[in-house]
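Intended use. Records like the one below are meant for learning the mapping from a protein sequence to its folded structure. Do not use them to infer anything beyond what is encoded.
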Amino acid sequence: MASQTPPGGSQTLSRGIRILEALAGSDRALSIDELAGALDVHRSVAYRLLRTLEHHGLVARDDAGRARLAAGVATLAYAVSRDLQQAAYPQLVELADELRMTCLIAVLIDGDEAVTLMSASPRSEVAVSYRPGHRHPITRGGPGKAILMGLPSASWPADVASEVAVEIDESRARGYALSESEVVSSLHAVSVPLDLPGQPPASLSAIHINLPRPAPEIAAALDRSARQISESFGARRPPREGF
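Structure written out for the chain above:
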């Protein structure tokens, strides 16, 4: 996560955004002291920032004063990704039901992390929950590695290990990325790159505690859906080799 204010930027705005990022990346409400520690600022500074975000409906606090994201964030997020939601979510639901796996779209953020933008679970199965906003390094897990597959090596983070680079080359050759227990213990993922014109580099993934069918079949279904989503955004590309 970026922690420095860009040259000529606003330190206050940067800190407010970092509070939102800290809350989005946590699976529980956070105290003022925890937020102050995350920003490396005095408690009073964190409190003033939190009060401003609360005033704008982006943060809410419980009776103990712990903070969490509020509905205002969802409103902003929906406005930003409205076109993608409309084009991709029905495909995501259909794919989840077809594969009997939770399906998700992740996008590149801050140059070195993948963040889940949206997810859908199968309606007739015990589903794996994978909430939007979940972040992890793009060098770990299928969603991140599929993003790397779609990027030229020169655009990768500088610290990509040689063994990861070899794995990405192998994934490119077969057309999809695989992972097991790399981000969440016991979860398997099959992932393909997703081309979204005008949007950050992205990936489409299916996750479950096991693979209900062979990985190449899952990847073929993912690739078909990825192509349909891409085409709705104006992209035109041939099917990946083997699919």
